[in-house]
Amino acid sequence: MSRVIKTPLPKSSRLWPHVAKGDFIDGYAVESTLSPREAAEIALSMPGWADALLSLRNRLVKPFGLKTEVSETGERAIFPVDYEGADELIIGTNDTHLNFRICIHQQAGHIHMATWVHRNNALGHVYLMLVTPFHVLIVRSGLRRIARAR
């Protein structure tokens, strides 16, 4: 099994024009020949513990009016497709507290996954600080599943 490595998103990604000074962006990669769409379907088919965390998140943030619908379409969707091409899929949305995109990029036999976050206000700063440890666990878990499916 290929191991997950922390690495910057390739500069050829369409995500980079979103990134401004002070924004959060992380990057991980794993060996895989899957398409970005195939990789996304695997990574976003979360295990029970991650689904439970997302459900808890949705219950906690609903009173604040944050987006909670886990789908690709609809006004309240948190994972709509922003861009899809042969080598890259970018999903995410803009919300009151922050704007985010998840990029899944295929390059040279590797799937790269990066998350970009632009915090819009103090709630966005606090939210990102609270969810980052869980985010890292979820992303790395998704990439391990991608590596097994290669």
Furnish the topology, listing elements before pairings:
Layout: E1 5-6, E2 24-31, H1 36-43, H2 48-61, E3 81-84, E4 88-94, E5 98-107, E6 110-119, H3 122-149
Antiparallel strand pairs: 1-2, 2-6, 3-4, 4-5, 5-6
Features:
150 residues, alpha+beta, 6-stranded antiparallel β-sheet, 3 helices, 33% helix, 27% strand
Structural account:
It is a single chain. This protein is of the alpha+beta class and 150 residues long. Helix content is 33%, strand content 27%. It contains three helices and six strands; from the N terminus they run E-E-H-H-E-E-E-E-H. It has helices spanning 36-43, 48-61, 122-149; strands spanning 5-6, 24-31, 81-84, 88-94, 98-107, 110-119. The chain has a six-stranded antiparallel beta sheet with strand order 1-2-6-5-4-3. A hairpin with a 3-residue loop joins strand 3 (81-84) and strand 4. The longest helix has 28 residues, at 122-149. The radius of gyration is 15 Å and the shape is globular.
Total beta strands: 6
Side-by-side strand order of the widest sheet? 1-2-6-5-4-3
**Which class do the helix and strand fractions yield?**
alpha+beta
- Please bin the fraction of helical residues: 25-40%
Percent in strands: 25-35%
Total of DSSP H or I helical runs spanning 4+ residues: 3
Shape: globular
Which whole number gives the mean pLDDT?
88
Helix and strand run: EEHHEEEEH
What does the radius of gyration come to?
15 Å
Low-confidence stretches: 72-77
The N- to C-terminal Cα distance equals 9 Å
Largest β sheet strand count, sense and barrel closure: 6 strands, antiparallel
